[in-house]
Design a protein that fits this description.
Blueprint (H helix, E strand, L loop, with lengths): L3 H10 L8 H15 L5 E5 L6 H14 L3 E6 L9 H9 L7 H7 L6 H19 L2 E6 L6 H13 L5 E7 L6 H12 L3 E4 L5 H12 L2 E2 L1 H8 L5 H13 L3 E4 L2 E4 L6 H12 L3 H12 L6 H8 L7 H9 L3 E4 L2 E4 L2 H10 L2 H17 L4 H11 L5 H11 L5 H13 L8 H14 L3 H12 L5 H12 L6 H12 L6 H17 L3 H11 L4 H10 L3 H14 L8 H15 L2 H18 L2 H17 L3 H8 L11 H17 L2 H14 L5 H17 L3 H8 L14 H15 L2 H16 L5 H15 L2 H13 L3 H17 L3 H18 L2 H13 L8 H8 L4 H11 L4 H8 L3 H15 L4 H11 L2
Parallel strand pairs: 1-4, 1-5, 2-3, 3-4, 6-8
Antiparallel strand pairs: 7-8, 9-10
Helix pairs in contact: 1-11, 2-3, 7-8, 9-11, 12-16, 13-15, 13-16, 17-18, 18-19, 18-20, 19-20, 20-21, 21-22, 21-23, 23-24, 23-25, 24-25, 25-26, 25-27, 26-27, 27-28, 27-29, 28-29, 29-30, 29-31, 30-31, 31-32, 31-33, 32-33, 33-34, 33-35, 34-35, 35-36, 36-37, 37-38, 37-39, 38-39, 39-40, 40-41, 41-42, ...
């Protein structure tokens, strides 16, 4: 129960406008109006302590007085003699008194029937008063009423119903006796209206705060106020306490708070509430205050070293006192301010000791590590090495990198820079910050710790972290590796990781000779960089062998670079055209990214997956993946290079100008990038765009500076680009460019034994350079075998055009139709339109037939097949959407894709395809 003096203070502090109770006031206004016309009712206002029941009743009283009604106040807990003392006090205390005191004294002579006659006098007096002017009778704390009082209320409210008397009964059902409960239920069944008051909304709470401070509340003040979770009493107690202690700063029309602790007024109020409890319930609250915000009865019993059955009564007492509440089986304080206050009531040394004891008990009991770490963070203090070490260890078990990073930063704040654990905590915090995509905070922390003294081993670990940050230029990353390798006090494991990353960063920076030297000298994980060097030089067989060895051994179970290891392997395998193996490695990478919740790695996986979908003809999936929102907000580095390359390719196949513009805009920004791989990708996007708009001469001019074979890290789309370059060279009649491309093709051919995409690209380039249709048709088969169906269609198109030029029109038209069928199957609408125009120019337009339908059936996705079966059976797009729980927009999109892939133009044709293929 809230102490009376605080209720008085609260009433004085309450604003003239009741906040957040508009619906309740509107309903009460109607009841007041009805009572003033002679229709009396009973209103039951229920809610926890401090929620605003008294303030709402006062508002009703004010509105009733303005209507000329008479208001009587009674407090159910005021009686000391039984009978109807609270009501008598209200009647006798009003001016003038409603009942004659002499008449009551005559009735109260101790006889057995005295109560009856007193009730008779009270009823008569109230009926007479209501006959003159409508009454509002307010009784507060009804839950504390004795049996006589509650019986009197029940009887009088019923008998006075038609006399214009409105009863406002406020109290807490949870604390009511069985007799009061039964009376309240009876009154409700008899037409009484019950109002249950809950916490204020955030908007109403803000208004209450700003009513008090008469200024705009700033975030520091609002953060503290939010702990009260919309309980008006505690909000006002908090504000009043802050004001009394001079901690409210109101300047320039804004209000903020000084410090984060609670004012004495709040802790005193909490202490008084605790003293009103039994000793056992008081102990429950004190132990609950050092538990995590949500806990179980088992946790509580373990700390109190008692049986669960012994907690039933004290827990029930704390629940009835509105201190604790139960939600989804967990126990918590009714609001955070209560927990905060209960903690501050405890002496600080005791609170910290209890917190450590609780943390250990929770760990042994298998509690959520995040809860344990948060508790350790609350209790740890500067110099408490044991607590900080425990916090560090527990934080590393938390999957969510954002939560783990915050806890590690808290641990770091408790350690002096010279502490031997400082470096380890720093490195772990950096890794979690990076996984969470908090790059700025990680960069600031890195700069801060490198400016301080660090043991060489710790400095090497910090520099190792920096060397893996893809958003930094690879030359800077390599410098960190070199600096760390000059440090003498480092372990063999750290040196090996630095050597592997140095080789990789050199490769990405275009220093392939140096990357090869470092990789050969290092071995182990550095072999991934060596595979990249071989791939970049066109030595596909050697690269494939390196990747096989890496795949066979796999990363160590505790290797922190596992995800990036799989990513590198997947990217190089896609470059070689080993699509199945690449898909498996990419799945492993995605699994690791999700397990560690590594957002930058997830972005890289997503964009590599988009590129893979483009290469394998899954254009819809490629578009979805490439345009997905980066998990880290703004993707950078290699992820951006992959994305803009994929969008450029999609723009050409789909004829989507918006995708092309997006790719070009990114490329223009990246032409001055400090990342050579990014610059090369940007240049190639601009070349692709020029070729797409038919400007072969411009594209050829841009190609004069392109190395053709990668001068750094190979990307999966590099070989697609070589085919584009050969087509540009042929269209522009650029003999020098063609000779360079033939030399590259010859190199690829030599190393193509275990690199299917190398052999396919070599055949394609040789066929274009020589204008040889047979070589181009062979290339089409090789491209298809390498899992690149769209490049296979390009080779068919090139072969068909070559035959047309060689006066083999019939054969040329046939292969152009084959290319058109493939483009249609895979949804490359712009490429298909281009071939249709070419065929029309040669008078070779063909109607779509069943052969075309069948060729595209296997290309439908599972979602598209579900739509096909419904649409072909006669369902409309809207009804299909309802049955599949999809939006109509999604079904429309699937239908368009199906029609394009199958080359059909009607639902009748679609039904024929279903009949022929879905047996």
């Amino acid at each position: 129960m809230i102490p009376a003096q605080h209720i008085k203070d609260w009433s004085r502090l309450a604003s003239t406008v009741v906040r957040g109770r508009d619906a309740e006031i509107e309903m009460l206004d109607g009841l007041v109006a009805a009572a003033s016309s002679g229709d009396g009712r009973v209103v039951l206002i229920d809610g926890p302590s401090g929620i605003g029941k008294t303030r709402l009743a006062e508002e009703v009283a004010d509105r009733a007085r303005r209507r000329g009604m008479r208001v009587l106040h009674a407090e159910a807990a005021a009686g000391t003699r039984g009978h109807v003392d609270p009501l008598l006090a209200a009647l006798l205390g009003d001016d003038p008194p409603i009942v004659d005191p002499a008449a009551l004294r005559a009735r109260d002579g101790g006889a057995d029937d005295a109560r009856y006659w007193i009730m008779h006098e009270v009823f008569a007096a109230l009926a007479a008063a209501a006959g003159q002017v409508p009454l509002v009778i307010i009784m507060d704390d009804l839950h504390a009423a004795d049996g006589d009082t509650i019986t009197a209320v029940r009887m009088l409210s019923s008998r006075l119903r038609n006399t214009g008397a409105l009863w406002i009964l406020a109290g807490r059902r949870v604390q009511a006796s069985p007799v009061v409960h039964e009376t309240l239920n009876h009154l409700q069944r008899d037409g009484g209206v019950e109002l249950r008051l809950g916490p204020l909304t955030s908007t109403a709470g803000l208004s209450l705060v700003e009513d008090f401070v008469r200024a705009t509340a700033l975030p520091p003040l609002l953060k503290l106020v939010r702990e009260a979770r919309g309980h008006p009493y505690w909000i006002l107690e908090l504000l009043r306490g802050l004001s009394e202690e001079g901690r409210l700063r109101i300047t320039g029309g804004t209000a903020t708070v000084v410090g984060t602790g609670l004012p004495q007024r709040v802790t005193t109020a909490m202490d008084e509430r605790l003293r009103a409890l039994s000793p056992t319930a008081r102990q429950v609250i004190r132990m609950a205050a050092v538990l995590p915000p949500r806990f179980t009865a088992t946790h509580l019993a373990g700390l109190l070293r008692g049986r669960l059955t012994e907690l039933i009564e004290p827990l029930d007492e704390t629940l009835r006192a509105d201190l604790l509440t139960v939600t989804d089986g967990d126990i918590r304080f009714s609001h955070d301010l209560l927990r905060h206050a209960a903690r501050e009531v405890l002496p600080e040394s005791l609170r910290r000791a209890l917190g450590r004891e609780v943390a250990n008990a929770l760990l042994l009991g298998g509690a959520d590590p995040a809860d344990v770490a948060a508790l350790l963070a609350e209790t740890a203090e500067a110099g408490d090495r044991a607590a900080t070490s425990e916090l560090h260890a527990v934080a590393l078990t938390i999957p969510d990198p954002t939560v783990a990073a915050d806890l590690l930063l808290r641990a770091l704040g408790q350690l002096p820079p010279e502490d031997e654990e400082h470096g380890a905590v720093t490195v772990d915090a950096l890794v979690r910050l990076h996984r969470a995509g908090r790059f700025d905070r990680a960069r600031d922390l890195t700069g801060q710790v490198l400016a301080e003294y660090l043991p060489e081993e710790r400095e090497a670990e910090v520099r190792l972290y920096r060397s893996t940050v893809n958003e930094r230029p690879p030359s800077d990353r390599a410098d960190d590796n070199r600096t760390a390798l000059l440090l003498r006090g480092t372990t063999a494991g750290i040196r090996a990781r630095h050597q592997a990353w140095l080789a990789w960063n050199l490769l990405e920076n275009g220093d392939t000779d140096e990357a090869e030297r470092v990789a050969r000298a290092s071995g182990g994980a550095a072999r991934l960089a060596l595979a990249g060097v071989h791939s970049a030089r066109g030595a596909g067989t050697l690269a494939s062998a390196d990747l096989d060895r890496l795949t066979a051994t796999g990363p160590r179970p505790d290797d922190p670079d596992t995800g990036l290891h799989y990513l590198g392997i997947a990217g190089l395998l896609h470059h070689l055209g080993r699509t199945k193996d690449a898909t498996s490695a990419l799945i492993d990478c995605l699994r690791e990214a999700r397990r560690t919740q590594d957002l930058p790695l997830l972005d890289l996986c997503t964009q590599l997956a988009a590129t893979a979908c483009l290469l394998t003809g899954r254009l819809d999936e490629a578009r979805t993946q490439a345009l997905s929102e980066p998990a880290t907000g703004d993707s950078a580095g290699l992820a951006t290079a992959l994305r803009m390359t994929t969008l450029a390719g999609l723009g050409q196949y789909l004829g989507d100008a918006a995708l092309t513009r997006s790719a070009v805009a990114t490329a223009q920004r990246w032409q001055t990038s400090e990342n050579p791989t990014g610059r090369r990708s940007a240049d190639r996007v601009l070349i692709t765009a020029a070729a797409g708009r038919g400007d072969a001469e411009q594209a050829a001019r841009l190609l004069r500076d392109d190395p053709l074979l990668p001068d750094g890290l190979p990307l999966p789309a590099d070989l697609t680009f070589l085919v584009l370059a050969a087509r540009v060279a042929r269209a522009a009649r650029d003999r020098a460019l063609l000779e360079r491309l033939v030399a590259v093709a010859t190199t690829l051919e030599v190393g193509a034994a275990d690199a299917p995409a190398f052999g396919a690209t070599a055949a394609h380039v040789h066929g274009l350079a020589a204008g040889n249709a047979e070589q181009l048709l062979a290339a089409a088969k090789l491209q298809d075998a390498a899992g690149r169906p769209l490049l296979s269609a390009v080779a068919m198109e090139d072969a068909g055009q070559t035959m047309l030029g060689d006066d083999l029109k019939e054969d040329g038209v046939r292969w152009l139709h084959e290319g058109l069928s493939a483009y249609t199957t895979w949804g490359a609408v712009a490429s298909a339109q281009r071939l249709r125009r070419l065929l029309r120019e040669h008078g070779a337009v063909r109607r779509v037939g069943p052969a075309d339908w069948n060729s595209g059936w296997d290309r439908l996705t599972e979602s598209e097949l579900k739509v096909v079966r419904l649409i072909a059976s006669g369902e409309t797009n809207r009804s299909a959407a309802r049955q599949l729980f999809l939006s109509v927009h999604t079904v429309n999109s699937h239908v368009r894709n199906v029609f394009t892939k199958l080359g059909v133009s009607s639902r009748v044709q679609l039904a024929h395809v279903l009949r022929d293929n879905d047996g």
